[in-house]
Amino acid sequence: MTTDTTTRTVKAIVRAPDPLTYTAVRNHLGSTANIEVATGEYRGPVDVAVFVAERMTVEVMSALRRLKDSLGIPVVLIPSEIDRAELFAAVECNVVAVLPRAAATTGRIEEAVLTAAAGGGVLPPKMLGELLRQIERIQREVLSPSGLHTSGLTPREIGVLRLMSEGLDTAEIAVKMCLSERAVKRVIFGVTRRLNLRNRPHAVAYALRSGVI
């Protein structure tokens, strides 16, 4: 299944704080070749949500969480103002692109929507730096003292999954890591249960996507 957004139409929905802003964003996106804006009572699949907000209020964050829970799609956020804590909370709600409202031209919104639909993200350099520093702080102050990685995996779990990805079986992994076979099985069971992974290949794929192996 292709993810090349240049050869297919991206379906987007728009959420805005007032009818005038909604109409303007909808019309801008609707005039582009690769984007179709879902309107009215459309019930089909949607690729991206474009969410415009003045400030990151409690109501806005609640709306983003509902959007994540109901559709689970990437979000392009266009706020007038957003601070570091709000940015991190927004990322947890599937926001993958942030365009300050003052700089949100038609071309930039279109680019952000297509990038989000293709699995990418768009952040201004300052915001990207803030996000990376926040992640580093969480790793240093919260996860590392507990023996965890940002992926949710412990060093031992990462070691087992790395050896699994190299094709080693349980007995071979046990020898390599100086563990019993039962201990290796417990590690694998713990990972799959805690992270809701189906089986060993799924666990290896999760580790690969997380960039830890």
Automatic annotation (TrEMBL):
Segments forming domain HTH luxR-type? 146-211
Query: What SMART domains does the record tag this protein with?
Result: HTH_LUXR (SM00421)
Q: Which Pfam families match?
A: GerE
CDD domains membership:
LuxR_C_like
One example of the protein's molecular function in GO is:
DNA binding
InterPro entries per record: Sig_transdc_resp-reg_C-effctor, Tscrpt_reg_LuxR_C
Q: What's one GO BP annotation on this UniProt entry?
A: regulation of DNA-templated transcription
Q: Which residues cross the membrane?
A: none
Task: Kindly state which keywords UniProt assigns to this record, in alphabetical order.
Answer: DNA-binding, Transcription, Transcription regulation
Protein's recorded name: XiaD protein
